[in-house]
Amino acid sequence: MSKQIVIPFGPQHPVLPEPIHLDLVMEDERVVEALPSIGYVHRGLEKLVEKRDFRDFVYIAERICGICSFIHGMTYCHAVEGVMDLPVPPRANYLRTVWSELSRLHSHLLWLGLMADAMGFESLFMQSWRLREHVLDDMEETTGNRVIQGSCKVGGVRRDISDAKLREIADGLEELRPQLEDLRDVFVRDSSVRHRLGGLGTLTEQQAWELGAVGPVLRACGVANDIRQTGYAAYDELDFTPAVETAGDCWARTAVRAEELFTSIDLIQQAAEKIPEGPIEVKVTGNPKGEFYARSEQPRGEVIHYVKANGTKNLVRFRVRTPTFSNIAPLVVSMKGIELADVPVVVLSIDPCIGCAER
Amino acid sequence: MAYMKRSPWIIHYDGSSCNGCDIEVLACLTPLYDVERFGIINTGNPKHADIFVVTGSVNEQGRQVIRNIYDQMPEPKVVAAFGICACSGGIFRECYNVDGGIDQVIPVDVYIPGCPVRPEQIIDGIVRALGVLEEKLAKMKEDGR
Ligand code: SF4
């Protein structure tokens, strides 16, 4: 056996937009073990519930993570609405679905770009982010902001999207579709991408399940697990099938996400067709009392928000289990035996969002 | 500024941001905003950088990392705090693990608030930082360094 050495990776590293640190135990070029250590972006925001009104806390919940911010805000609202037994009007549920799917589109395009960058495929990175701007324009036109929207609130949503605007968004996405198809084809078919990602960081279905993988990482191993199928917001009235791959490697994770772009477009178009007329919010009276778990599907996988309230305006406890946190254990296992030069790609393949994971 | 005399290279570190500001900083590099056409490059090496862009507030564990990056940068160097978190701690100010803005650890030259900062503001911030860089350079020349 050759000598083992430890190479530190991070916290400030060119391929990582966010700080995470890994100790890589190496034998020549091969990773024997990866030891993650986190805590660089821990803020402790869960405890802020004790200081903020539960209605205002939506703003903080949205800032758990700037990428999937809308879905965090929405899941928090679901949790509080669950405690208070608030009936959210159907139109609000549809609008939440539309914004959730726009978030997923922007998040996946962002990730595809970062992945291309990690592979060294610069022009593909630029293409992904160029297409992403289209989605951000839709966000800005409907909510007033690009990445943190503040459009969700306890009891409904803060603003309406007119039916004409919804149709415009649906048509705009239809125009975007061929460009996204070209993009997907490069990620899925291009021989150098396949060469770079195929067979890399592989997990078996059994491993992924046992280690608690969620979202695209789990779906890339052949498990059709998508929390949207539980039918929160308006998903029970819309039709979709989760994208699934079976290879379990980095390529499969990429393919799953690329395919989900089209699922999101379909969902938005269906929602624009079916959205009912009606109010967009209900009045919130009184304070919550009790506890509730809310689950939803983030671009990165299942997120759980737990709230506990005692009848005052401040919650007693707020807890988030984020998808990246669940995916760190599978990541560490999938890194065993890979080459040093592949480490950035494999780390990125779980779509790590450290801001979420550490809160 | 009618024209730019220099093409500054930036290094970006995420203190403890929510990512909102980070992805907007990255968005500046991509085709719609494309600051790279002015030669503004995002480098990963502190020794190559002129402008230190920090997003997010400071926490205990990040303190030393920020200090290290700053100390390694060659003179003249400019620090730009992007986003209200980096300016003052912002919405997370009262969190137990947040010490406040970046100026708790290193001197900050340019403050750009916003939650998140918009790409237009970021570009404006870089242009301002460039102004400060020129001043510092002139000062260094004057001092004969
Ligand atoms: S300023 Fe706002 S968007 Fe930027 S890191 Fe802080 S909370 Fe996130």
Q: Profile the largest sheet of chain A.
A: 3 strands, antiparallel
Q: What is the number of beta strands of chain A?
A: 8
Strand order of the biggest β-sheet of chain B: 2-1-3-4-5
Instruction: From the 3D structure, determine the CATH topology of chain B.
Output: Rossmann fold
CATH architecture descriptor of chain A: Orthogonal Bundle
Number of domains of chain B: 1
- The number of helical segments of chain B is 4
Query: What's the CATH architecture name of chain B?
Result: 3-Layer(aba) Sandwich
> Quick one: which chains have the greatest interface?
A-B, 41 and 38 residues
Radius of gyration of chain A: 20 Å
List unreliable stretches of 5+ residues of chain A. none
Beta-strand segment tally of chain B: 5
Quick tags:
heterodimer; A: 359 residues; alpha+beta; Cytochrome-c3 Hydrogenase, chain B; 3-stranded antiparallel β-sheet; 12 helices; 8 strands; globular; B: 145 residues; alpha/beta; Rossmann fold; 5-stranded parallel β-sheet; 5 strands; 34% helix; binds iron/sulfur cluster
Detailed description of the structure:
- The complex is a heterodimer of chains A (359) and B (145).
- In chain A, 47% of the residues lie in helices and 14% in strands.
- Chain A has 359 residues and is of the alpha+beta class.
- Chain A has one domain (55-354): Cytochrome-c3 Hydrogenase, chain B (Orthogonal Bundle), CATH 1.10.645.10.
- In chain A, a hairpin with a 2-residue loop joins strand 6 (289-298) and strand 7.
- In chain A, helix 2 (69-84) runs antiparallel to helix 3, helix 3 (90-119) runs antiparallel to helix 9 and helix 4 runs antiparallel to helix 5 (163-189).
- Chain A starts with a strand and ends with a helix.
- The mean pLDDT of chain A is 83.
- By secondary structure, chain B is α/β, with parallel strands linked by helices.
- Chain B has one domain (3-142): Rossmann fold (3-Layer(aba) Sandwich).
- In chain B, strands 2-1-3-4-5 form a 5-stranded parallel beta sheet, sandwiched between helices.
- In chain B, strand 4 (78-82), helix 3 (84-88) and strand 5 (110-112) form a beta-alpha-beta unit.
- The longest helix of chain B has 24 residues, at 119-142.
- Chain A binds chain B through residues 11-14, 17-19, 39-45, 47-48, 51, 59-60, 63-67, 69, 110, 113, 125-126, 129-130, 132-133, 136, 146-148, 353, 355-356, 358, and chain B through 12-24, 26-27, 30-32, 43-45, 56-57, 59, 61-62, 65, 69, 91-92, 94-98, 115-116, 118.
- Bound molecules: iron/sulfur cluster.
- Iron/sulfur cluster sits between chains B (17-18, 20-21, 55-56, 83-85, 90-91, 115-116) and A (63, 66, 148).
